[in-house]
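Supplementary Methods. Inverse-folding protocol.

Structures were first reduced to a discrete structure-token string of length 215. This string, shown here, constituted the complete conditioning input.
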């Protein structure tokens, strides 16, 4: 029986794409750059906010100064509007409650900057006692580097064989592979099932309740 489930956040627990897209478009427009449709944002996200800003900028303007300016504007907007359109995927609140009731420990590992992660988790899942909620912090490499997962495991004191890592992208599957824990790819998120297959997901599921069968 598994004892710990580590979840990715964006595209796994919550559909955050509209709020991320609106924040990035706000920063682009404020600095005189063309914006993107919200539908295009699932393929911009996944590697942290700095990489998101880099991707949405025209290639000729991806210098450090420009990225820093847009990142500042993005965070200013997103900090105020990160819960405007974001919502849990159907079945996620019920899944978290069921896991909690079975005494399965829960954690979150996200590439989103930590302040936003803490706010969002508190807002949507304040009744769930996560043993760790980790976003991107200065000095720690983002996923697929497994450092964030190792940090959670060190807090949990649970063997890797007793852990599931759940995410919606190739970045998540690669993170789990590098950490040597079982990867569960979900198809309701931002990336296509084909990407999960290409990154060697150990298991692919199509609805949250299927995680209960893997426990």
């Amino acid at each position: 029986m598994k004892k710990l489930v580590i979840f990715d956040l964006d595209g796994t627990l919550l559909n955050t794409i509209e709020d991320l897209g609106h924040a990035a478009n706000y920063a682009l427009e404020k600095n005189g750059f063309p914006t993107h449709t919200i539908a295009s944002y699932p393929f911009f996200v996944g590697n942290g906010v700095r990489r998101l800003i880099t991707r949405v900028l025209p290639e000729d303007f991806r210098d450090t100064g420009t990225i820093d300016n847009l990142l500042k504007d993005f965070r200013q907007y997103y900090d105020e509007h990160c819960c405007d359109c974001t919502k849990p995927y159907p079945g996620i609140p019920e899944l978290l409650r069921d896991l909690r009731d079975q005494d399965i420990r829960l954690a979150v590992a996200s590439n989103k900057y930590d302040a936003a992660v803490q706010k969002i988790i508190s807002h949507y899942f304040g009744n769930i006692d996560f043993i760790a909620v980790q976003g991107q912090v200065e000095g720690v490499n983002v996923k697929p580097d497994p450092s964030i997962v190792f940090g959670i495991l060190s807090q949990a004191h649970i063997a890797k064989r007793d852990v599931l890592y759940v995410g919606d992208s190739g970045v998540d599957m690669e993170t789990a592979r590098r950490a040597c824990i079982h990867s569960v790819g979900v198809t309701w998120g931002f990336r296509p099932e084909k990407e999960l297959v290409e990154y060697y997901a150990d298991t692919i599921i199509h609805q949250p309740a299927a995680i209960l069968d893997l426990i």
